[in-house]
Amino acid sequence: MADRAVKTALFDAFARAAKALASGRRLELLDVLANGERTVEVLAGEVGLSVANTSQHLQVLRQAGLVTSRRQGTSIHYRLAGPEVLELWQLLRTLAAGRLAEVERLAADYLGARDQLEPVTREELARRLQDRDDVFVLDVRPAAEHAAGHLPGAVSIPVDELRRRLAELPRDREIVAYCRGPYCAFAHEAVELLRQEGFSARRLEDGLPEWQAAGLAVTRT
Amino acid sequence: MADRAVKTALFDAFARAAKALASGRRLELLDVLANGERTVEVLAGEVGLSVANTSQHLQVLRQAGLVTSRRQGTSIHYRLAGPEVLELWQLLRTLAAGRLAEVERLAADYLGARDQLEPVTREELARRLQDRDDVFVLDVRPAAEHAAGHLPGAVSIPVDELRRRLAELPRDREIVAYCRGPYCAFAHEAVELLRQEGFSARRLEDGLPEWQAAGLAVTRT
DNA sequence: CAAGTTGTCAAGTGATCAATTGAATAGGCC
DNA sequence: GGCCTATTCAATTGATCACTTGACAACTTG
Fold it and tell me: Which of A50, A167, A190, B212 could serve as a FRET partner for A158 with CA atoms 20 to 30 Å apart?
């Protein structure tokens, strides 16, 4: 019954791909990479790991076929291997969010009870942009990510510069802030701050990767 | 920076869901469960594990929210928690099949080089059934699974009874055999046997779960 | 070509996981 | 109410994983 052994090996191979996703740190890396390619060093900074450790995680992801890399100058840039990878990550977190009460609780802790007000859906924002509705779209991600691609017409003010650049924002229009995805805290923080300061602000329900994956327009500077 | 700790915990929670998929044995269990609910004992038999071990795997899956269970009489029936679980499993194996050469090689070993001839796509078969084309649809899964749900008009002959029931098959029509999914060996085996015996036979590219997930009609006896 | 970055490898440690075994529940059925 | 059976729990063992540290490799750029 060598068949059993081969079947075992086949399903173990599928499991190896899943194993690459079975680490919170690697999922954080994927979540960042969904916003565009990054060097090892930058990634290490984003998720708070040592460079060596980050490199090892990236190699696990590469062996699973989830990311690819290219060298540019002195550094190596990693990126998602394809759109299906983002799709898999989205599906995984949707499923986890829907079925694990734990996730809901942790998400509330992390993102704050800031979420009282309904976020703006992708569809709603796309429609309002289409209709030339005068919504002010605010990209609160780091400037480099904005440069690599952003929503049409979005203005870049990284969240940590927001407090001292409030003057650049309109008080007579609704502001919609977005960042890297539904589990990125930047937009939540930004909306909280803006509300305190008397602005009319809501956040986009998810981030740039989902916008792009939905086939909506993305502008590159 | 307690934020970091909470973020870590949040992504670890997502990772726990992925971890449930990170075992070949658990994926085999999901693959069987995609065809309908099963008792622990039956599942143990299907994947060749001890009952105790199977039970433990099932509990990992349940804690991840991927399966649910219900008691009926003396035994406990497990089933997939929802259609997204099948979707996740499908996406995972598609991605692995596309990106890992290893999978391709193992699949060829397991399913045989039997795969030379083009399988019938779901769409093609659905269209031919619609058009009342005289295709003979053969369900080679165990009889119990056929009873729980099958393609419209499909005839049930479990693969291990096929050789002695060849008389029940037509020689003037194309036979399309299907089983549990693309990585189930039954249909491959069946087609190989039927060809040897001079029948015109092909296999459906995937199985009942995918057919059902695509929203196509399923008959219950 | 030499110096300096950036990224990777290798070895070690503590933690977690899969499977086995044997015992314990928990419900159904007489 | 008490046996029976299907399932689960608990304890153990060997394997695998995450992270650290320090050394090495690959490549750019002066």
Answer: A50
